Amino acid sequence: MTMTVTQINYSDIDQAILRDCFDKSLPYLDASPIPNIVWEEFELTVSSTNDEKFEALRARYEDSSTGSIIFKIDIDGRIVNYNYAIREKNGMYCHMMDLMRQDASGSQGWSYTAEYHQKLDAFFKSLAPDETTFSTWTFEGSGMEAAWDKSVNEGWITYTTPETIENHHGQTYKKLVISVIV
């Protein structure tokens, strides 16, 4: 298995694959009782249609005014993930969005491996060589937080939580600053 992380432009995104990644990610994004996305930040709600949600995320990938970078992950040539990140004022990259799908064998287990963390870390360090960490935001008690915690338990990463926002659309929102240690 060969995993590759590549920075791309919006025009490089295969829209059919992006939609497939969105469709596969939607149950995770809309998880209940604690979601992994705040649709209100896109002027939507959890009750909005899937097409409205897709269009909001697609537009976010397209919007270069945020200073975001877009990247994809492929495994053995199959695109399994489209992402975007923004560079924070301190120089660190904040991993903002992940839309994922299965690899050629039908597994999404690739996103729960040491290799995934190593490749993501190497990619962010290639963009900001002086930075030893990257960040992301997650809701307390969410599936995303559980996935990061599992990676800590596996010994692949450590993280600190330097910032917390209470009652962010009814949830506690935590910034994780992640160090890959494998």
Give a structural overview.
- The protein is α+β, with helices and mostly antiparallel strands.
- Helix content is 29%, strand content 32%.
- It contains four helices and seven strands, in the order βααβββαβαββ.
- The protein has helices spanning 15-29, 50-62, 114-127, 143-153; strands spanning 3-8, 69-75, 78-87, 93-100, 134-139, 157-168, 171-180.
- The strands form two sheets. A four-stranded antiparallel sheet has the order 1-2-3-4. The protein has a three-stranded antiparallel sheet with strand order 5-7-6.
- It is globular, with a radius of gyration of 16 Å.
- The mean pLDDT is 94.
Give the mean pLDDT. 94
Discrete helix count: 4
Categorize the overall geometry: globular
Largest sheet features:
4 strands, antiparallel
**Portion in strands:** 25-35%
| Strand order in space, largest sheet | 1-2-3-4
